[in-house]
C-alpha cells in the first residue's frame, strides 16, 4: 500500500531558498527524488530579499530563509542551525588567537554581501549594536566569490558556517574566534499562513523536517574544522 501511495505522488515542487541553503538542500533532494520519481523539482537559490519577493507573490510552494519576514504572515518551522562566523585567510595574524575583541575587526579590510542579503543585514546589525564600523572594501553577491576573495587576501568576512561545507582540511580559509561570534541563527521553512500545501509540497515539508534534518546535520559537520 505504501508503495502505491508513493507512486501516486506526482507533480511539481517549487522551492525558493536563500544562498546558504544551497549547501544542504540539493543533498536532501537526492534521496527524496529517488523515493518519489514522479516529483519534479524547481529550486531557486537567491538572497533573502528575493526569496521574500517570491513569497509575497506566491511563486513557490516552500521557502527557506534565516529571518522570518516581519510584514508577511507566515507559518515557520526551524530546520537547522545556520550560524555566522568570521572568516580569514589561514595565514592571517589573528588566526589561532582566542577570544579576539570584536573591535579588532574595525582595523581589517572587510568584504560584505550585497544589499538584500540576510547575511549582510545580520552582520550590520551586530556591528551597529557594538558600535563597530568596519571598512568595507568590497561588496560581493556570492558566498563562493567572497571565499575566493578572502583566500586571495582581500580581507575578512562574516558568512554562514555552511559555506565551509565543501572546503577540505587544506582550505586556505579559517574561522576566527571573535567575541560575539558565532551569530546564532536558524534556517526556517516557511509558507504563507493558511496556504493549503499541495500533496507534493506537504510530502517534502515532512521529509525535510524529519529525515532531511538528519542528513543535513551530517552534511553540515563535514566542513567544520
Ligand atoms: P543571504 O542569506 O543569501 O540572503 O545572505 C543567507 C543566510 O542568511 O544564511
Automatic annotation (TrEMBL):
One Gene Ontology molecular-function label: transcription cis-regulatory region binding
Keyword Transcription set for record: yes
Coiled coil segments of this chain: none
Keyword DNA-binding: yes
UniProt keyword terms in alphabetical order: DNA-binding, Transcription, Transcription regulation
Protein family membership: Belongs to the LysR transcriptional regulatory family.
Protein name: LysR family transcriptional regulator
Natural source organism: Aliterella atlantica CENA595
